[in-house]
Amino acid sequence: MTSEQWAQLSVFTAEFFYLIIGLIFLLLGIRALKRVEGWQRYTTFAFWTLLAFTFIFGKYIPFWITGACIVAIAVMTLIKGVKPAKLDPPKAEDTRREADRIGFKVFIPALVLALGAFLVATFVAKLGANNAIGISAVMGLVTALILTKAKPVQALEDGIRLTDNVGTVGILPQLLAALGALFTAAGVGTVIAKYVSAVIPDGNRFMAALVYCLGMALFTIIMGNGFAAFSVITVGIGIPFLIMQGANPIVVGALGLTAGYCGTLLTPMAANFNIMPAALLETKNKYAIIKAQVPVALTMLVIHVFLMYFLAF
88 to each of 20, 31, 33, how far by Cα in Å? Predict the structure, then answer.
């Protein structure tokens, strides 16, 4: 296949997965009309339907319409207009019986997903990393259906139920990643550099490493996305105060990202890491995952400061 054909296949594959995601959101909205009580049934339906619209038709509509949809769903979230539907979970005895039957084989689909993503991203790299995740998810789903002997409609129902349980925070990663790109384009990094220059004494490498790692963690806590924080904080602190002072760019980049991930462990904004697992585990406190991760995150952040200071220079 030519490069152009690979590019077309990559776009087609991505649009296929966006379509699937959009249809799940649409079904969730329809479900809200039947199961959510009061006026919130209509706003919940509108929220998921608008989100489905952007995923399915986003490529074919003007940007301002997508922006208007985002503003609309933000307003519905602000007025607490999005409410989960009444759950219809499996019975405890059914769950226990299936758990005993499957045992540790339940982890096989997850391993297939991870291995599949690696293989596709490595050997079919022209499809793109996002498509590799989508294809591996299909592989993991098929494996799970074979392993559990469940019907495909059950996977769809549980997927909708999980999405509903996670709620509006499930779309934060996409919104925050876009916000990070917006901050970078707006020159937020330059503004940060201006104010940080008053804090870091000239030539003080340790202070530069400290402020950079703390900045990455704090901005990740705010943004919920280490990649979004990386572009802003590295432009504002990493380049002028570390790399321009002789630090190894590879070490700065690698440790900068993982310092940001320390912040990921501490924020509900990282919904897919911290809120979704709590929903899966059905914990009484939705912040239980974060509370358990605080000691590890803070310890690793301190270690990152010293690693940055000793390894980067």
Answer: 23, 12, 15
* 3-class SS shares of the chain: helix, strand, coil, % to 5: 80, 0, 20
Same domain (yes/no): 184, 57:
no
Question: Residue 280: its pLDDT value, please?
Answer: 66
Tell me how far apart the alpha carbons of residues 196 and 209 are, in angstroms, rounded to a whole number.
12
Residue 155 lies in a domain: no
Domain match, 175 and 306 both? yes
197 & 306 share domain: yes
| Side chain identity at residue 183, one-letter code | F
Least-confidence region, from 77-81, 190-194, 236-240: 190-194
Q: Kindly report, residue by residue over 22-74, the tens digit of the pLDDT.
A: 999 999 999 888 888 888 889 999 999 999 999 999 888 898 998 899 899 98
Which amino acid would we find at residue 199?
V
pTM of this structure:
0.72
Structure-token pair, residue 247: 């630090």
Q: Which residue range(s) make up the domain with 74? A: 3-78
User: Alpha-carbon distance 47 to 169, whole Å?
Assistant: 12
What is the number of domains present in the chain?
A: 3
Dist. CA 84–CA 35, nearest whole Å? 9
CB atoms within 10 A of CB 191: 13
Residues 6+ apart with CB under 8 A from 217: 259, 260, 262, 263, 266, 297, 301
